[in-house]
Amino acid sequence: MRRRALLLNLFSLLAGVLLFVCVIEQTGRRELLARLQYLGPSFLLIILVSGARPLVRALAWLRCMQPEDRGVGFFTVWRARLIGDAIGNLTMVGPVAAEPARLIFFGGKLPLTSAASSLSVEFFTYFVSCCLVMLSGLATLLGIFVISQSIREASIVALLGLLLIVAVAVIILSWRVSLIAVLHATLNHFFSEHHFSPRIDRQIHKLLTIENYLFDFYRRRPRDFASVACYEALFHISAIIEIYLTLRLIGERTTWTISFIFEATTRLINMVFAFVPLRVGVDEAGTGLLAETLGVGTLTGVTLAIYRKIRVLFWTAVGLACLAAFTTTVSKDEKPERESETKEKF
To answer: Which of 228, 116, 129 has its CA nearest to residue 169?
Structure first.
């Protein structure tokens, strides 16, 4: 199973690399290299602005916790988020790997159910906020710019899909539709002759606890929800600022509207192709096509995508460094325990 997953990961990465090479060749290597050298040391400003994103999402996660659990501290939450992001960026399963990884590398400072409950609230709020941003961006693209028929049709389909997702999310929260309970009842119906083991029942109970925490958060903690919503909004605002600054620093006259459409549309593309590690090739091709549609040129779009790739690699490296430091700390903590156990035996 692991070997198959590794092969799929390598295949998706190879396909992305091939697409990346094709995009670079079509755009023009010399022109692209000249554009990339244009930014220079100013790229540090982009790194600084992009650092606001994991910061505000860490603050959002902290706010989703119960007040008595927030004593774990900001650094623990921020480190777990960076480690999860790094693992998600380097694997083809993306968020599916990133979210559980945050819990694994949380350091055991909170019970797993408590950490998972607060993380589920943060992720759900983030996901809905992304859908709203993508909806607004696609609506702006369709309403302002003249685009080809194929792109218009694809945008309309994506817009309707996002509307459906947001509507389902609102219904689930408003009516407290328990998806875990529905799943449990379905399994009991189809496997009525078989009894689930106590271990499976305990896991389902934990999932129901997490789900109830999600429902109760939005109803019983409006102030915390407002704070989390503001943090998620800051996440998207910082992403738009990053795009705007990058375009201005490479000499492109842009507007906040174009930067907003870039953020919304490319986020949709990257979510759809989350299975491609680092979104290699996909981001460059999608951003280049969007830039041509917006009238800023394919070269500008591909340059923007490459700068964002460098930014992702930087924060992925930071996440891996946090992972290495965490692993080293855990190993040092375990060593005295093993030595004491050995002494007791003798």
So the answer is: 129
Model pTM score: 0.86
In a domain, 235, yes or no: yes
Domain housing 136: 2-175+221-345
Q: Answer for the pair 197, 224: CB distance below 8 angstroms, yes or no.
A: no
Q: Which helix H or strand E contains 106, and what residues bound it? A: none
What is the C-alpha R_g of the chain?
A: 23
Contacts of 134 (CB under 8 A, 6+ apart): 158, 162, 264, 265, 267, 268
What sign does the dihedral 163-62-218-224 (CA atoms) show?
A: negative
Compute the C-alpha angle 89/123/330, nearest 5°. Answer: 60
Nearest Cα to Cα of residue 287 among 275, 272, 304: 304
What would the pLDDT profile of 66-121 be if each residue is shown by its tens digit?
999 999 999 999 999 999 998 888 776 666 778 888 888 776 778 888 999 999 99
Residue identified by tokens 């992702």 is 312
CA distance 120 to 131: 16
Give the distance from CA 255 to its chain's centroid.
26
Tally of residues, the chain: 346
Name the domain count of the chain. 1
Task: Pull the structure tokens for residue 146.
Answer: 């003249």
Alpha helix positions (H), 176-255: 179-190, 198-220, 222-249
| Residue 97 included in any domain | yes
- Give the tens place of pLDDT for each residue, 131-170: 999 999 999 999 999 888 988 999 999 999 999 999 999 9
Q: Find, among 57, 61, 46, 86, the residue nearest to 235 by Cα.
A: 57
Q: Is residue 213 part of a domain?
A: no
Report the C-alpha gap between 299 and 284 in whole angstroms.
Answer: 10
Q: Look at residue 21 and tell me if it is in a domain.
A: yes
Helix (H) or strand (E) holding 196: none
Q: How far apart are alpha carbons 116 and 111 in whole angstroms?
A: 9
Q: What is the pLDDT of residues 171-201, one digit of tens each?
A: 999 999 998 888 777 777 666 555 566 677 7
